[in-house]
Amino acid sequence: MPSRATPTSTPERWAERMTRVFITGTAGFIGFHLAQLLLASGFAVAGYDGMTDYYDVRLKQRRHAMLRAHPGFSATEAMLEDFAALQRAVDGFSPDVIVHLAAQAGVRYSLENPRAYIDANIVGTFNVMECARAQQVQHLLLASTSSVYGANTEMPYAETHKADTPMSFYAATKKATEAMGHCYAHLHRIPTTMFRFFTVYGPWGRPDMALSKFTRAILAGEPIDVYNHGQMWRDFTYVDDLVRGIRLLIDAVPGGPETAVEGDSLSPVAPYRVVNIGNSVSVRLEDFIAAIEAATGRKATRNYMAMQPGDVPATWADARLLHALTGYRPQTDVQAGVARFVAWFVAYHGQDAGPSGQDGHAVSQARC
User: Fold this and answer.
1) What range defines the domain where residue 58 resides?
2) Residues 223, 169 share a domain
């Protein structure tokens, strides 16, 4: 294994030596895709996943089985809250970088089971940060969410905007992890990047997400529930674009003022920054549904409903900081991304997937 970088190393030199990456949530949607990209790029990857039953575990098992076929991948199946297990896994791998993706996700489920968000998102993230501190990793990257912008109506959302009005308990726990990450970066000088996702979609996506639910229902001839009477906009980000952004941010190690770029969110007192990863296009929900109709060749029957508690009418990412740091902009348009998802969905489930939930694959969501 290459030696660790010294504090005087440049970020470019650090990037050359960052060969061992520990990822939480590798059986999950985003973690699976990130692990695939890093393995293909020559990194050694250790995964960690709790394999909870928030959605069908078979989908997670399929993802992990694909990763295990790569000789550079190893995995531990245990909960984030199990600090002893997490510590053994991290210490045994001795990573240069930790990417923390595992979480209890979902706005709506946080209304039903808020304690799960404390356990996974608060306690679990604290455990990851403690492992990062003990290992003195060269870069800690933590997943946040666009949901932290909450009631903010100034768009597109920029990292320097206030995010003090969360609308869901899920968002509140993610905002708390941002504050925790800043504190550890300041106290322990851990270079930390917190990235905020914007409605990620694509093949191997979670069955609780709108794209999976809409596709299943349309193929089965069932109506779809369209909230806020269709007056919703989202910055949909294709998963390949997202993980490419994460991969490039691994090299963009935050440090002192010399690492700042124009429009930076770099902390004045810590090697810490927040970065949006989004497509920078706010798409109307009706246009998103139209893309699914085009990809499936079937029309949707819409059941218009009121806004759900905790939801926001629109999201829109200002991703200029990501471009300034990496030279990269997500660019997959919704029509192309949805078509790729539908092709995967039909191949995975079969053309006649049946009514929602009957084949065992359409059960809610998960921590990873």
Assistant:
1) 11-199+237-277
2) no
- Taking only the tens place, the pLDDT of each residue in 292-307 is 999 999 999 999 999 9
The CATH number covering residue 319 comes to 3.90.25.10
**Strand 97-100 relative to strand 20-24: parallel, antiparallel, unpaired?**
parallel
Residue 140 lies inside a defined structural domain of this protein:
yes
Q: Are the beta carbons of 263 and 320 closer than 8 angstroms?
A: yes
Domain assignment of residue 4, yes or no: no
What is the distance in angstroms between the CA of the first residue and the CA of the last residue of the chain?
28
Quick: pLDDT tens for 267-279: 999 999 999 999 9
Classify residue 364: in a domain, yes or no.
no
Tens of pLDDT, residue by residue over 102-117, are 999 888 888 899 999 9
Q: How far apart are CA 296 and CA 283, in angstroms?
A: 19
Predicted TM-score (pTM) of this structure: 0.91
Rounded to the nearest 5°, which phi and psi values hold at 275?
-135, 130
Residue 299, Cβ neighbours under 10 Å: how many? 11
Helical packing angle, 334-349 and 285-296, nearest 10°: 50
Beta strands 139-145 and 192-197, pairing class: parallel
Cite the active site residues.
170
Return the pLDDT at 12: 45
